[in-house]
Amino acid sequence: MTKQDLILMMMEELGYSRRDSKAFIDKVFSIMIDSILKKESIKITNFGSFVVRIKGKRIGRNPKTKKEYIIKDRAVVVFKPSIGLRKELKMK
Count of alpha carbons within 13 Å of 78, Cβ hemisphere only? Predict the structure, then answer.
């Protein structure tokens, strides 16, 4: 599913115009991105959570040359599905 698919679904199922649907979807994603950049978690009931985790530095290795190098600390976003979503996925 793409962003365009979401916009079309809003148009068809809720009767909004393309412009209003796009504006709504863009705003939701903008708010989510801003929260993630602030390293805040996002919890959506009956769907799941987007959690920002900090991965510590570690030693990496180029598999071709076998040369070692340090991978710096970095933030990653992890999605954790809700219990309800996990149950639904197991049923299908």
Answer: 9
Q: How does pLDDT run across 35-67, given as a tens digit for each residue?
A: 999 999 999 999 999 999 999 999 999 999 999
| Residues 6 or more apart in contact with residue 80 via CB below 8 angstroms | 48, 49, 51
Question: Would you identify the CATH topology of the domain 40-92?
Answer: HU Protein; Chain A (4.10.520)
pLDDT value for 58: 94
Q: DSSP character for 46?
A: T
Domain ranges of the chain: 1-38, 40-92
| DSSP-assigned beta bridge partners for residue 44 | 48
- Percent of residues, the chain, with pLDDT higher than 70: 99
Q: What is d(CA 32, CA 13) in angstroms, rounded to the nearest whole number?
A: 23
pTM beyond cutoff 0.85:
no
Element (H, E) at 2: none
